[in-house]
C-alpha cells in the first residue's frame, strides 16, 4: 500500500473534528484534553524586530480560563518555563472553580530553549518531550491549538496523532499579502489598487511604476513583504509629483528613501528579504479622518462562517502601520459593514478549506457623512485582538450580538481597550511579583462582581523589556479608557526615582494613544 502523503494524513486526522461541526468554539467544550502550542511559526527575522517577542507565547495563557470546565485538561508548552506567579494569576481568575482543582488539570511543559526558532520546531527536536505530551493526552478526546498553522504544526500534529484545530498549512498563501488581495477580489470586497506578488527589486520597481501611472495623483504607496508580521514588514514610499517621463527610473531613484516601519530597518535590509519572502505594492489610503478597524470570524469544521467580533485597531510607527492595541467594539458607524465584508471573506476562505479563527484588517476613511471601507489584509491565525476578546468572553460569560455588533453581559454592554505595548524604560526590572503587589495595593485588578477592571498579560516581558500587555474592561468606552490610564499612571508613579532608587524614568516609548490615529 502506498503511504499517504502528509497533506492527506493531516486531512484525515482533522476529520475527527467534524463530529463537533456545529460548535462555534470547540475550544470551550468540556471533557477534552487541549494541547496549546503558542508557537509563532513565522519569519524569525521579522519577529525579532518585536521587543520581547519570545514572551508573546504568553498571549494564549487566557486559554487557562478554559479550566473553568471541570473535566477539561490542558497542556501548555512554552520555550522557557513560566513564572509560577503568572500561572497563579490566571488560575485565580477562574469563576466558581477551586484553584487546586484547576491546577491539577493543568500540565506545564517547556523546551528550556530561548533560541530564535519557532516553538514547534523546538518540540519536534525533542522526542522525549513529545512522548511525554503523547502520554498525557487521551487519543479520542484530544486536540491541539496554536497561534498559526505551518508545516511545523502539521508535523507535530501528525507525530502526536492529535488533530489540529486550525487551517491546513497548504492554505497559508491565503493569509499572505498577495493571497489576501486575491480573496478580496473573489469575494467582491473593496480593497486598494495594487500589484500581484513580485520576487525581485526590478519587478517591484515595474509594479510600483505601473501602479503610479494608473494613479498619477497618488501621494504614497505601501510596499509589503508578503509574510510580514504586525506591520513590521511594511514600508511607505513618498511619490514625487507626476510629471510624465520614465516612471521606472523615478521609482528606482525614490526607493532608497523607503520609510520602513520596523525600528532600525533600512531599504537595503528590506530589499534583501524580497527574494526570500516576496512583496506587493499598493496605494496608501489617504484621508483626514482615518481609522483601522478589523473583523474576526470563525470557520467551523463543517465550513460554516460565524461572526466573533469587530475592533478599531490602534496603530503606531512612522506611518501608522504597526499594531499597538485595539478598542472593542468598532465604531457603530461601520461595524455592521465590517461584519458583512468579513463574512464574504470567510465564505471565500471556507471554500478553500480554511478552518477556525481568521481576521480581516480594513481602512475606514470618512467621506462626508459616510465611511469608505477597504480591506487590506487577512490573518489566518490568532492575532492581537484574539486574546482580549477571549478574556472578555471567558471572564463575563457574555454574548456577542451580531445584529448590533455589541457584547452583552449581565444586562450591560461591555467595552475594552487592550494593548500589547505598554512599554517604558522605567518599567524594566519589575518582576511579576512586583506587578502583583502594585495591582493589589492600588486595586487595579479585574473585579468579577462588577465585571470591570484590568487583566494583564506579557508579564514575562516586563523585567527585561519594560513591556506589558493589558485589557481594561468597562461598561463604557470612557470607563475602559479611564481604567487603562489609571494603570499607566500608577506604574509611572511606582517607578519614579523617589520610589525606586537607581531606576531612571527617562524618555522612552510613548504610551499607547487612545485617540484615533490617521
Q: What is the strand arrangement across the widest sheet?
A: 13-12-9-10-11-17-19-18
Instruction: Specify Rg, calculated over alpha carbons.
Output: 23 Å
Q: Low-confidence spans: pLDDT under 50, at least 5 residues?
A: 501-512, 514-518
Count of separate structural domains: 3
Shape: globular
CATH H level of the largest domain: which superfamily?
Answer: ATP-grasp fold, B domain
Tell me the structural class: alpha+beta
Percent in helix: 25-40%
CATH class of the largest domain reads: Alpha Beta
Q: What percent of residues are in strands?
A: 15-25%
Oligomer: single chain
- Compute the separation of the termini in Å: 60 Å
Average the pLDDT over all residues and give the rounded result: 88
How is the CATH topology of the largest domain named? D-amino Acid Aminotransferase, Chain A, domain 1
DSSP summary, beta strand count: 19
**Given the structure, what is the number of helices?**
16
CATH architecture of the largest domain: 2-Layer Sandwich
The biggest sheet amounts to: 8 strands, antiparallel
Amino acid at each position: 500500500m502506498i503511504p499517504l502523503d502528509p497533506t492527506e494524513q493531516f486531512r484525515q486526522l482533522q476529520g475527527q473534528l467534524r463530529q463537533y461541526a456545529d460548535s462555534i468554539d470547540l475550544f470551550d467544550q468540556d471533557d477534552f484534553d487541549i494541547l496549546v502550542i503558542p508557537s509563532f511559526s513565522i519569519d524569525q527575522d521579522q519577529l525579532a524586530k518585536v521587543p520581547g517577542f519570545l514572551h508573546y507565547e504568553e498571549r494564549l495563557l487566557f486559554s487557562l480560563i478554559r479550566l473553568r470546565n471541570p473535566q477539561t485538561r490542558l497542556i501548555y508548552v512554552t520555550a522557557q518555563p513560566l513564572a509560577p506567579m503568572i500561572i497563579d494569576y490566571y488560575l485565580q481568575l477562574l469563576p466558581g472553580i477551586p484553584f487546586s482543582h484547576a491546577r491539577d488539570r493543568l500540565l506545564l511543559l517547556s523546551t528550556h530553549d530561548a533560541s530564535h526558532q519557532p516553538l514547534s520546531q523546538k518540540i519536534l527536536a525533542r522526542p522525549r518531550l513529545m512522548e511525554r505530551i503523547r502520554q498525557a493526552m487521551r487519543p479520542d478526546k484530544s486536540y491541539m491549538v496554536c497561534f498559526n498553522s505551518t508545516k511545523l504544526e502539521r508535523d507535530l500534529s501528525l507525530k502526536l496523532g492529535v488533530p489540529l484545530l486550525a487551517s491546513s498549512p497548504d492554505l497559508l498563501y491565503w493569509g499572505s499579502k498577495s493571497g489576501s488581495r486575491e480573496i478580496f477580489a473573489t469575494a467582491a470586497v473593496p480593497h486598494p489598487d495594487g500589484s500581484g506578488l513580485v520576487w525581485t527589486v526590478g519587478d517591484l520597481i515595474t509594479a510600483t511604476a505601473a501602479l503610479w501611472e494608473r494613479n498619477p495623483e497618488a501621494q504614497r504607496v505601501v510596499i509589503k513583504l508578503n509574510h510580514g508580521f504586525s506591520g513590521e514588514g511594511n514600508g511607505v514610499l513618498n511619490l514625487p509629483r507626476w510629471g510624465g517621463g520614465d516612471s521606472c527610473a523615478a521609482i528606482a531613484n525614490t526607493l532608497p528613501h523607503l520609510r520602513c516601519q520596523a525600528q532600525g530597518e533600512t531599504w537595503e535590509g528590506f530589499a534583501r528579504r524580497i527574494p526570500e519572502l516576496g512583496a506587493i505594492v499598493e496605494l496608501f489610503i489617504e484621508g483626514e479622518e482615518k481609522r483601522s478597524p478589523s473583523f474576526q470570524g470563525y470557520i467551523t469544521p463543517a465550513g460554516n462562517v460565524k461572526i466573533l467580533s469587530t475592533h478599531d485597531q490602534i496603530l503606531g510607527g512612522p506611518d501608522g502601520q504597526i499594531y499597538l492595541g485595539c478598542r472593542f467594539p468598532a465604531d457603530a458607524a461601520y461595524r455592521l459593514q465590517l461584519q458583512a465584508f468579513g463574512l464574504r471573506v470567510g465564505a471565500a476562505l471556507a471554500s478553500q478549506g480554511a478552518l477556525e479563527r481568521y481576521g480581516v484588517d480594513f481602512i475606514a476613511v470618512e467621506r462626508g457623512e459616510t465611511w469608505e471601507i477597504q480591506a487590506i489584509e487577512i490573518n489566518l491565525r490568532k492575532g492581537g485582538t484574539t486574546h482580549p476578546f477571549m478574556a472578555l468572553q471567558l471572564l463575563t460569560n457574555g454574548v456577542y450580538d451580531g445584529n448590533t455588533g455589541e457584547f452583552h453581559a449581565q444586562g450591560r454592554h461591555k467595552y475594552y481597550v487592550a494593548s500589547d505595548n505598554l512599554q517604558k524604560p522605567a518599567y524594566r526590572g519589575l518582576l511579576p511579583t512586583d506587578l502583583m503587589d502594585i495591582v493589589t495595593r492600588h486595586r487595579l485588578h479585574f473585579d468579577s462582581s462588577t465585571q470591570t477592571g484590568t487583566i494583564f498579560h506579557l508579564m514575562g516581558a516586563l523585567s527585561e523589556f519594560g513591556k506589558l500587555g493589558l485589557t481594561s474592561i468597562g461598561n463604557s468606552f470612557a470607563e475602559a479608557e479611564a481604567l487603562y490610564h489609571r494603570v499607566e499612571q500608577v506604574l509611572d508613579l511606582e517607578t519614579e526615582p523617589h520610589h525606586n532608587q537607581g531606576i531612571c524614568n527617562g524618555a522612552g516609548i510613548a504610551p499607547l494613544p487612545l485617540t484615533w490615529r490617521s
